[in-house]
Amino acid sequence: MFNTYEEAVSWIHSLLNHGIKPGLERMEWMLERLDHPERRLKFVHVGGTNGKGSTVTYMRHILQESGYEVGTFTSPYIETFTERIALNGTPIPESDLVEVCNRVYPVVQEASKTSLGSPTEFEVITLICFVYFGKVAFPDIVLLEVGLGGRLDSTNVIHPLVSIITNVGFDHMHILGNDLEEITFEKAGIIKSGVPLITTAEEELVRNRLIETTKKNNTKSYKLNEEFRVSDLTSTKDSENFTFHSPYRTIENISIEMKGLHQVKNASAALMAMEYLRVFYGLHIEEDMIKRGLLHASWPGRFERILENPDVIIDGAHNPEGITSLAETIKTRYPDSSIYTVFSAVGDKDIESMLEPLYPIVSSMTFTTFEFPRAVRANELYERCSFSEKAFEENWMTAVETVMNKADDKDLVLITGSLYFIAEVRSYLKTLK
């Protein structure tokens, strides 16, 4: 058992060696032995390829402005491990994490001695989330982010009030499938009988499959640009501004500080979910609460400006859809700047097709790596990219410093790729302020 926070986190991380084991049987077995803490909670379940974390933070801020206690479960973390499980944006206290780990440890050990096999790191973190919220913190509502895929993800043991699928694109293909049809099938696995779906997915094949799944489950779908939409979209230096339309009301003069059209879509998904909960579950959510919540919402590592003169932006765009959205935001925000990019990635990604949207707008691309089990070496990333103005540097601090020294005050330094990489760089850059 554990006496300190460090001991508890070390145990959790030791489970990473058990890899990824899709399936719900272990989770259900362990939850049964813990008297099903998840059944005491009200959930919004959030899946999709990109935008899950931003959508969660928009909802959290709206609900907090409306006076509710809000639990969130997100991944990965940017600054501290405990931020993955938070109440009203405050990470789980270290003492509570130790207490909850001591509750779940015997069950995890028991499971590992059965034919079910040892639980994975993510399964145990999910278990800790359920026990903390269901037996210690007791929030009014929990915003639960899917870890990987949906159908067999360890979060998919709940029956939420409403489900959200932001979009579906190419990521984790070695697990979820090689084409959009297979990936959509996995993402759509969070859709439950009688639980409505809200989606911002726009690809026709994806949308059709999601609609089919909701019909099979005798429930309703709310789709961007059909049941809900945005209009009057304008961008300023500091904000995106728009009007939101749903079947239940129109809200004008909304502003968000997170940049890009993709963030407007994420905010609209969050708004549609809040409107559904207001109308069908009686949550007290007024227009002024919505506007304040959205304006205050921020999410580290998503088009986040860390330094100025030159501007240094970090963005955890780690798949084709994320890079495409990033490129569109850069074109809007920095149309006349020279853009110097530092990039790192994990896993077996198609680097060429992923980075292609950046080629027309960046001046140079520097590849690097970092200490992480699945991080790709800098020289390998370099070889897999056809962009002409490229370089590589295995030491990421050296790579970042070299690129920053090359940029003038009017230029943009863009640091992007894996969220695990962004977390390390963000921590370092914060010390330079």
Which range best describes the helical content: under 10%, 10-25%, 25-40%, 40-55%, 55-70% or over 70%? 25-40%
The oligomeric state is single chain
Q: Output the strand order for the largest sheet.
A: 4-3-2-5-1-6-7-8
- The count of domains is 2
Percent strand equals 15-25%
User: Any idea what the shape is?
Assistant: globular
Q: Give me the CATH fold name of the largest domain.
A: UDP-N-acetylmuramoyl-L-alanine:D-glutamate ligase
DSSP strand tally: 17
Largest β-sheet summary: 8 strands, mixed
Q: Please state the second-level CATH architecture of the largest domain.
A: 3-Layer(aba) Sandwich
* CATH class term of the largest domain: Alpha Beta
Task: Indicate the low-confidence ranges by residue numbers.
Answer: none
Average pLDDT number: 93
The rounded Rg comes to 21 Å
CATH superfamily of the largest domain: Mur-like, catalytic domain
Calculate the terminal CA-CA distance, rounded to whole Å.
Answer: 40 Å
Instruction: Output the structural class.
Output: alpha/beta
Enumerate how many helices there are, as a single number: 15
Walk me through the structure.
The chain is α/β, with parallel strands linked by helices and 433 residues long. The protein folds into two domains: 292 residues, 3-Layer(aba) Sandwich (UDP-N-acetylmuramoyl-L-alanine:D-glutamate ligase), CATH 3.40.1190.10; 127 residues, Alpha-Beta Complex (Protein-Tyrosine Phosphatase, Chain A). Helix content is 40%, strand content 19%. It has 15 helices and 17 strands. The strands form three sheets. An eight-stranded mixed sheet has the order 4-3-2-5-1-6-7-8, sandwiched between helices. The chain has a six-stranded mixed sheet with strand order 12-13-17-14-15-16. Helix 3 crosses helix 9, helix 3 packs across helix 10 and helix 7 packs parallel to helix 8.
